[in-house]
Amino acid sequence: MAQGFAKKDFADPGYQDWTPTYANLTVGNGTVTARYIQIGTLVHVYWRMVLGSTSVIGTAPTFSMPVAAGTGVADNNQTLGRALMSEAGVGNWNGSVRMRAGDLFQVKADDASNTYARDADVTATVPLTWAADDVFSFIATYEAATSALIEMGANNDHGALSGLTDDDHSAYPAYGEWADWSPTLTNITIGNGTQFARYTQIGKTVHVWFHLTFGSSTSMDGSPSISLPVTANTSYPSTVHPLGSCILHEGGSTRKIGAVIMDDGNSQFDLFAQNANSTYAALSGITFSVPFTWGTNDVVAFTATYEAATAV
Q: What is the pTM of this model?
């Protein structure tokens, strides 16, 4: 067995440019920055557009992904990241990034006009009346359909280093490769619902996505939580550290916006709705009737990123 292996021996794949294909969005003379990085099957992207005088934002714009997505969930409920939409000299509006079928991103605006915050289609006038010098941007993380090798050796193995044998290669983790995990759910009964739970760990960084579609015997009680796939670092403060965002979808109706928080014991994801019934949105506990009365075909989905206790 080869000795002296260190994480730094892996080549840095680096960020790359990509040129998205757009629907319901015209760049015109605007300026776009679109960059992504892929490690194994982990893909992280950021996109930013400064509008020009001939740029046009249409209704429900979509953006092609730089790398084909895995065969998980693509039903517009899986949240992948967050968006920021800025009106020059006025203010900023938040939004979320969704996965759409066909390897597409779609950005939704956060709508705080109801008791619980929900999403709304971005249009020429939502969440602002778009004009030159306004900025549209987002970040997202997702699982790719195929892996990008970090460094290639003679045997074309993941993380291969020059001069190592097949036995040597098998001893090293497949960085960025996603795997299933079977979380323990508290105050959620899956019943005949359908659950997807995936995670990947790179060093001490853990990315996860979770998606549950309710069946007729699925139930939601108060204060739902979901166990972590990997033990978290103990430095997280109790109940005040955000890890990601979630979507709470009432089947056939609206999608509410929520948050993912580290629980007191650093062992679970706690899920919350956003109560928009005040000047500033606040977190509100989820119950069997909050943010709506849960039933068949409803969905709870989230993504999160956190620091693990130990590295791989």
A: 0.83
